[in-house]
Design a protein that fits this description.
Distance between the termini: 14 Å
CATH architecture: Alpha-Beta Complex
Radius of gyration: 13 Å
Strand content: 5-15%
Helix content: 25-40%
Largest sheet: 6 strands, mixed
CATH class: Alpha Beta
CATH topology: Protein-Tyrosine Phosphatase, Chain A
Length: 144
């Protein structure tokens, strides 16, 4: 089954010319969804991924972040909308992870993540369907 925003691999070639890895979009926005997607990502990408993470502030963010392997570096960004969690507050909940950057701009988060992932490591966006939508818009991907 092909479902936009659920383990969706998209063309991210325009993000960073030195990066050729997969860009995976998954709107996993609660601990249950992350508990399902993280093992799948680990199986698909045994050498790890670089995560772009954003979530809404009314979510159980500490429980979500706890499910991310500490070997996966994270760029914390902001999902669109008034309910979005503050990226700096989210980053403070990641003491065991390598936080590569904290930014409210999705484009900057993708730049940071793809530079860290170069040349071939995947970048995975997690935590919010609004984050996935913002990335799809940024890349000029048509709605499906």
């Amino acid at each position: 089954m092909d479902w936009p925003g659920r383990l969706e691999v998209v063309d991210g070639s325009g993000i960073n010319p030195g990066w050729t890895g997969d860009l995976v979009l998954d709107g996993a926005h609660n601990p249950h969804a992350l508990a399902a997607v993280v093992p799948e990502l680990a199986a698909r990408y045994p050498d790890g991924v670089v995560v772009v993470f954003a979530a809404m502030r009314d979510k159980v963010i500490p429980d979500m972040l706890e499910l991310l392997p500490p070997t996966w570096p994270v760029v914390v960004s902001r999902a669109e909308g008034d309910r979005s969690a503050d990226p700096a507050a989210v980053a403070a909940l990641l003491p065991g992870h390598s936080v590569l950057g904290v930014t409210a701009e999705v484009s900057e988060a993708l730049d940071i993540a793809s530079a860290a992932a170069a040349p071939h490591r995947p970048v995975v966006a997690l935590g919010s369907l609004r984050l996935v939508g913002a990335i799809r818009d940024h890349l000029g991907l048509t709605p499906r």
